[in-house]
Specification:
Layout (H helix, E strand, L loop, with lengths): L9 H20 L4 H26 L4 H21 E6 L5 E5 L13 E2 L21 E2 L14 E7 L8 E3 L2 E8 L2 E8 L5 E8 L3 E2 L3 E2 L6 E3 L2 E5 L4 E6 L5 E6 H5 L13 E3 L2 E5 L8 E5 L5 E5 L10 E5 L2 E7 L3 E5 L6 E6 L11 E3 L3 E6 L4 E9 L5 E9 L10 E3 L2 E6 L2 E5 L6 E7 L4 E5 L2 E5 L4 E6 L6 E7 L10 E3 L2 E5 L3 E6 L6
Parallel strand pairs: 4-32
Antiparallel strand pairs: 1-2, 3-5, 5-38, 6-7, 7-8, 8-9, 10-11, 12-13, 13-14, 14-15, 16-17, 17-18, 18-19, 20-21, 21-22, 22-23, 24-25, 25-26, 26-27, 28-29, 29-30, 30-31, 32-33, 33-34, 34-35, 36-37, 37-38
């Protein structure tokens, strides 16, 4: 008589032991960056699940009825899962955000729209990406250096459509971009109440599991017009008062460009008589300028594909120029004809997103995430009179994935893979690294940093090379927030892919 064999447990125990060992090494012993740790973790867990299923079906010695029933349950679970849950994008470290499916409408979530009286319109505008000078640095606003008494006052809160655009503010209008169903919208809100003043719609939709849904560039307000870039490459010029379309271009179709994996995110730059955008075409069609009034092309230049940053205007080595961070280079262009004045190669293996930071002494700080780090370039004239870029130093201590960084009183502050750091730009050495704010965004207002953390908190920080000093914090949202805040005077406008709010920040008294 043959004795029945028991369940063979040791393969399953080995699988669990090895998976635990790999995860322990990834999170406790390795010095990898957050994104790579997430990828390694998901790969390890997926492998462990597959091996466990194979053990159950082939090696467990369970009865065949149990195995068949187990297989049926597994298949039913796999088939039912997409009907009940969904992946609503990822965090900045690529961790999937899984939630129960909801009946969310194209108009946005059910967030109560409410408003309190506005004392007065702001004394300063925030007319474009990263503020008036497109560098994340704002003039002294007279903000209080603490938020305890009184705390920031919520003026209004409302539902918005999907997207990672920020607000641009001019006078009584706050303008952003959203996705609602199959329409990509430019929406003008009343600054005082949050009510919709006008919308402009294009039949377009960008959506990926990792990148999320909707537009990601910020409108540019110049004169009586609004210039916007949609996630699929639609460039619009709209009337500021009504939203009426004045002219439009489909950059992907017209310039033979490839849509970047994370969508077009270039905020238009108004300079001289033109509107400049990164079209990303080859054969001299990388950077393009259009006439503000007519939309006719003025010039084009460069051959690199688009990155995810926005062009900025500055003066380096005594030459006024447009600087843009492309897919595989950072370059300076002549604003008169678009010709490339200088170009410096950059890794194309990851998204190049964060704006380069112009520093005194003809220096340009450039940084990418995914383990690449930062380089400080000096732009200078060569023996032939042309411009070129040389490396002063490089460091892995500032890996700016998609958050802008700022300088204040001789030091640079930015998010290094989600943790705030202070660097000495003279050497590239790190002064400190503290505060896990995630992949958020920050602005410098006078002598204070206003930081929007990835979890939705807004944090007030004193830029101090000696230590991290938090002066105040409040929870604006309770979910992932990648959008850059806008600060018009003392009015702070924040949003994510579900809701938007405006706060009045307390002023310094006495």
């Amino acid at each position: 008589m043959t004795r029945a064999r028991g369940i063979r447990w040791w393969p399953l125990v080995l699988i669990v032991f090895l998976a635990a060992g790999v995860l322990g090494w990834v999170w406790l012993l390795s010095d990898g960056i957050g994104q790579f740790k997430t990828i390694a973790t998901l790969s390890t867990l997926a492998t462990a699940v597959i091996l466990s299923a194979l053990w159950f079906l082939l090696l467990s010695r369970l009865g065949w009825k149990v195995r068949v029933l187990g297989l049926a349950v597994m298949l039913a679970g796999v088939l039912a899962l997409p009907r009940w849950v969904e992946i609503r994008g990822v965090t900045g470290n690529l961790l999937p955000l899984v939630s129960w499916k909801s009946a969310r409408t194209a108009a946005g979530p059910e967030v109560e729209s409410r408003a309190t009286p506005l004392a007065a319109l702001p004394q300063a505008d925030f007319p474009q990406f990263l503020g008036p000078d497109r560098n994340g640095k704002l003039a002294e606003m007279g903000l209080a250096s603490g938020w305890q008494s009184p705390p920031p006052r919520e003026i209004w809160r409302r539902a918005v459509g999907d997207g990672w655009s920020a607000f641009a503010v001019r006078g009584e209008l706050a303008i952003t971009q959203e996705q609602r169903g199959g329409e990509e919208l430019v929406v003008a809100y009343d600054l005082a109440t949050g009510d919709v003043r006008w919308t402009h719609a294009d039949e377009a939709r960008y959506e990926t599991t990792i990148g999320g849904i909707g537009p990601r560039a910020t409108p540019t307000i110049d004169g009586g017009r609004v210039y916007t870039m949609g996630a699929t490459g639609i460039l619009n010029a709209l009337d500021l008062a009504t939203g009426a379309e004045l002219w439009s271009h489909d950059l992907i179709a017209e310039y033979g460009a490839t849509l970047p994996d994370w969508g077009k995110s270039c905020s238009p730059l108004a300079i001289d008589e033109g509107i400049v955008v990164s079209a990303g075409g080859d054969r001299g069609r990388s950077l393009v300028a259009f006439d503000r009034e007519t939309g006719a092309e003025i010039w084009s230049g460069g051959d690199d594909a688009s990155g995810y940053s926005s062009p900025l205007v500055t003066t380096l080595a005594g030459v006024r120029q447009i600087v843009v961070f492309n897919k595989a280079s950072v370059a300076g262009h002549d604003p008169g004809d678009g010709s490339v004045l200088w170009s410096f190669p950059w890794s194309r293996e990851q998204p190049n997103v964060a704006q380069p930071l112009v520093l005194a002494g003809d220096r340009l700080l450039v940084s990418s995430g995914y383990g690449v780090g930062a380089k400080l370039l000096r732009i200078s004239r060569g023996a032939d009179g042309g411009l070129g870029a040389s490396v002063l130093w490089e460091t892995p201590r500032l890996k700016a994935k998609f958050a802008h960084y700022v300088d204040f009183e001789g030091y640079v502050y930015g998010l290094d893979d989600g943790v705030l750091v202070c660097l000495d730009p003279a050497t590239g050495e790190r002064c400190w690294k503290r505060g896990r704010y995630g992949h958020g965004q920050l602005l410098l207002a006078g002598g204070l940093i206003v930081l929007q953390a990835e979890n939705g908190d807004v944090v007030l920080i004193e830029p101090n090379p000696e230590e991290l000093t938090e002066l105040g914090r409040f929870a604006a949202f309770d979910r992932k927030t990648w959008n850059i805040p806008a600060l018009a005077g003392t009015y702070l406008l924040v949003r994510n892919d579900r809701e938007a709010a405006m706060y009045e920040l307390p002023r310094e008294t006495g």
